[in-house]
Amino acid sequence: MARLIDIVFDLILVIVVARMLWSALRGLFGSAATRSSPTDPASRPQGKRETVRGETARDPVCGMFVSTELSHRLEWHGKLLHFCSEECLNQYRKSASA
Fold first, then answer.
1. Shortest CA distance to 92 belongs to which of 60, 68, 66, 70?
2. Tens digit of pLDDT for each residue in 53-83?
3. What is the pLDDT at residue 23?
4. Closest CA to 75 of 56, 63, 93
5. Which range marks the domain in which residue 76 is found?
6. Which of 98, 62, 54, 60 is nearest to 73 (CA)?
7. Which stretches of the chain are assigned E, i.e. beta strand?
8. What is the pLDDT, as a whole number, of residue 12?
């Protein structure tokens, strides 16, 4: 019984290694018909692209662009300011009050 399990294990191992080698060789030596250039529009992945929505604003402290939906906000003299972090918001408050 142990001999049979050993043979089955060896067979599975040989199959796995053969499939890995076959995939590697097919990738290296595949025919030109199966390859396509990166600039070829047909080679680009098909399917829907995720649409990026929303707006960005520049953080007045560090200059980083932040999403207006996810930013830390401060209404200052009738203008809505957007900050990338609470640290930038606090730094702006300190410098504006001085």
1. 60
2. 678 999 999 999 999 988 999 998 899 999 9
3. 86
4. 93
5. 56-97
6. 60
7. 56-58, 65-67, 72-76, 79-83
8. 94
